[in-house]
Structures are given as C-alpha cells and as structure tokens.
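Why do we care about 3D structure at all? Because function follows from shape, and shape follows, mostly, from sequence. That is the central idea of this module. The next example makes it concrete: a single protein chain, its amino acid sequence, and then its structure expressed as tokens.
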Amino acid sequence: MTSIGSTEAERIWIALDFASEEEAERFLQRWPQEVRPAVKVGMQLFYAAGPRWVAQLVQAGYPVFLDLKLHDIPHTVARATESLAHLGVRCTTLHATGGRAMMEAAREAVDRASSERPMALLAVTQLTSTDRRRMNSEIGIPGSVRDSVAKLAQLAIQARMDGVVCSGEEAGWIKTEVTTELLTVVPGIRLPGDDPGDQRRVMTPEAAWRDGADQLVVGRSITQASDPVAVYQRIQEQWIQLQKEER
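And the structure:
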C-alpha cells in the first residue's frame, strides 16, 4: 500500500478549481504562512498553469494530488505517467475504464521512474456526476453503478493500483465486498445545505468517513466559503472526533 494519506493533512484534499495560478495563489495566501494544506490540481488549472507551476507547489511544501484522469492507449498513458512522476506530486488519476493493460503500463512507468516517494496511482471508477440512467442509456454500461464500480475496482487491484476514486456510496462497500487493499478517495463532498451542483452521488464529510472513505476531495464547500480556513478546520475536527470515537 502506498504511503499516501499517511499524514493527517492528506485526509482532506482541497480541489483548487480555479482558472489560473494567480487565483489559486490568492486562495492559498488566505492560509497561515506555516500551514500547507493538501491540494488537488485538476485539468483546468493544470492546463492553464502547467507542470512547472505544479512543481513549484511541491517545492513550496504542498502535498499535491494531480487529477488528470488519464485515458488513452497504454503506450501514451505510460509516457504521460512517467513525465508526471518526475514532478514530485503525491498521486495522479487515470480512468479504470481504460482497461487493465493501460493501468499496468502506468504502473510500470511509475516503477521505472522510482523515487524516494513514488507517485501513487488512483483509478477512477464512476464519476460522481454519473447515475444509473446516464450510465445505462448514454454510456452504454448495463447494470447498477455499484456493479460497474465493483468490476473496475477489481481491475484496479489486478493492475496494482494504489487506490480508487469512488463516491461515498461505494467506499465502504468496496472495502467489505471487494478488497481492503485499495485506498478509497471520495469526491462529491458537500456540507449540509450545500448545493450539489452537477454532482449526483454526494455525501457529507462525516457520512463519507463513517462509510469507509480514506480521503476526501472537497472543492466548492471550502473554496467558495467566506472563511475557507475555518471550514477546512471544521472538517478536520470532524475526522479527529471520529477517530476518538473509534478508539
């Protein structure tokens, strides 16, 4: 199992869903100077700011989750993964629907580019914006969302992925019915009363953790808050309290 998530900060990844590095930096400047929260850089910001800026984030002490959802032929994904592994980010994502050969090629690329702290690979199962109707009628995948997530999680195990990205509805079920070997990373997190936006399978932080999530990805609930640091700290405190209850 990867060491990702071994620090308390990495229990919560803040999704930096901004259009430019300037916006992201202004947001991060709201944190105390000595605090380096774990952050997720997605496609929009990565395409705008580029790999050098991501490397600068890493050098500044931020744990970085690079969420690019790679999906292509195995050779292309392997080369892309190898390039990303040299940035020093903690993890990146690829679509499990790309198949076992694609994921294995990415695994081999990371192993070749081995470092003191290898980049973890997270396989995206079904997006939290996907429900059964969309999956069946538009994408053409039969069965329930849970059935699809189970199949993709099994592929992830076979390809030696470090974890999966899934909704909170599937995190605990994966651990009890599929495997305990995969880290479960859960996006689609909303605080009580928040607008779900374009998400279909959403959950509160506390519910996601109780249902088996190892890590949460929280975006708008923090980034659009009037006091994002306070919201972030409140979510952290919920996790600490749950750990006390489990003891």
